[in-house]
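Colleagues,

For the teaching module next term, I've prepared a clean inverse folding example: a structure given as tokens, and then the sequence designed for it. I'd like students to try predicting residues themselves before seeing the answer, so please don't circulate the second half yet.
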């Protein structure tokens, strides 16, 4: 495994770790039979803390997104069959997960933390919370797909060397 593979795997695992921390809150919002006020207030408090994190934390998150994309493009630059299928698929999944982050996570966080006065009601905030939680679960699945594609690529490389 080379440097680009290690950079891709480490940045993907970093985001999975962040999202698994969020899953502690998200599972109470998504998977309980009845959504309670306690679960909602806990989620609001968690995501408010997450949203108001220092700029260095946000820079780290966005920098790791850049590492994911750059390392995938670097692996794709080799342009053989393995790169086309596995790294191309990983790049598509990474771009889709970043698109989910920018299109779902950021607006939902803004609605939860800074609701527009006289426009965003409490039910709008709860709906944004549910949407944010569902988006996080989808992003977890997408990042898992990146890990599966990279594992498949390594398996295929070892199978070719053995043959």
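(Answer key — instructors only)
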């Amino acid at each position: 495994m080379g440097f680009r593979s290690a950079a891709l795997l480490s940045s993907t695992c970093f985001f999975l770790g962040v999202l698994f921390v969020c899953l502690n809150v998200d599972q109470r919002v998504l998977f309980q039979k009845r959504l309670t006020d306690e679960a909602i207030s806990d989620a609001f408090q968690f995501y408010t803390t997450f949203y108001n994190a220092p700029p260095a934390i946000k820079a780290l998150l966005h920098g790791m997104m850049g590492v994911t994309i750059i390392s995938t493009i670097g692996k794709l630059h080799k342009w053989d069959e393995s790169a086309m299928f596995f790294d191309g698929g990983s790049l598509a999944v990474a771009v889709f997960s970043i698109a989910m982050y920018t299109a779902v996570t950021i607006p939902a966080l803004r609605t939860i933390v800074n609701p527009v006065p006289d426009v965003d009601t409490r039910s709008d905030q709860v709906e944004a919370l549910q949407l944010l939680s569902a988006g996080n679960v989808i992003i977890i699945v997408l990042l898992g797909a990146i890990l599966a594609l990279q594992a498949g690529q390594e398996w295929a490389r070892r199978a070719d060397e053995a043959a």
